[in-house]
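Thread: quick sanity check before group meeting

JM: Hey all, I'm pulling together slides for Thursday and realized we never actually wrote out the predicted structure for the chain we discussed last week. Dropping the sequence here so it's in one place. If anyone has concerns about the input, flag it before I start.
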Amino acid sequence: TWANSFKLYYTTYKTGTFDYDADTNLYMVGQYGGAYTDGNSGEQVGVTNVLVLETEISTIPGDKEDRLTVRMTGTGNGTYFCGGKCIPIQWSKADRNSQFVYTLTDGSPLVLGQGTSYVCITDPATSRIEIAQ
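JM (edit): ok, ran it. Output follows.
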């Protein structure tokens, strides 16, 4: 599926935007209605790969600071964006000391594009993706 741009609604107050630039082969990243910029260069961040990983996120019961707990082991679904396209994927992580493993839905390994990657952790109960083709 083509994905020239997409919005990731993390919550009701935070939205990430990713606009594909075919000239540079990068997704230009935005947030809070503006460009997401590199603190050192001041330039807008552009990335080759965007991985949106779905998992359970919840407030820690009884925590006075409303901190979150995020399940980052086991398996989950996701979406991979690269080169103006999006592909459904699956992720897995055996334990907290293991690396993430990304596969296509048929179980074959996902091969990332050469360049930088941006990983988004979302909860499908509270987040959604809006894709523009």
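AS: nice. The chain is about 0% helix and 50% strand. Residues 73 and 95 are 6 Å apart (CA to CA).
JM: adding both to the slides.
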